[in-house]
Amino acid sequence: MVSDAPGYCLQAPLELGLRQKGSCAGPLHSPIREDWGGKEARPKLEALPEIVRAVKGRAEVYLDGGVRRGGDVFKALALGAKAVFFGRPAIWGLVHSGQGGVENVLKIVKSQLDTTMALTGVSRLEDIQRSHVVKGDPYEPPPLEMTKK
């Protein structure tokens, strides 16, 4: 379904009021987390919670880019995205094996998402919560509270 509703391309929540019907307007229903900053831009998953808070439920937020695996899909959903978009893995599959390659990539990502959900005790997408994602340094030990049972 295509809508004439304004779309937004956001780098930060501050832009929410500035980008309406701007250069990013298009056939979108809701804000979409997108950027063109390349490696200099803030990581999309890092900015996502702030954008979701700034939107305050007035629209759905989608994440575009940086999604390579099912775990990335899980994190984006946990941080408030309604859905994710990804192209690069699908293009890799297409170049490698045509339509069958794209279908295989989608199966792999779905399998990875299913595995991540199972490992976190989640059986439905609707049950994915912000508490399933912990931000931290992968080289630091977990906080003491997390190790106590």
TrEMBL record:
This protein's UniProt keywords: Oxidoreductase
Top-rank taxon, per record: Eukaryota
Gene: HAO2
Protein name, entry field: Hydroxyacid oxidase 2
Signal peptide per UniProt: none
Keyword Transcription regulation included in the entry's annotation: no
Gene3D superfamilies: Aldolase class I
PROSITE patterns: FMN_HYDROXY_ACID_DH_2
Domain (FMN hydroxy acid dehydrogenase): residue spans on this chain: 41-138
Cofactor: FMN
Organism taxonomic ancestry: Eukaryota, Metazoa, Ecdysozoa, Arthropoda, Chelicerata
GO MF assignments: oxidoreductase activity
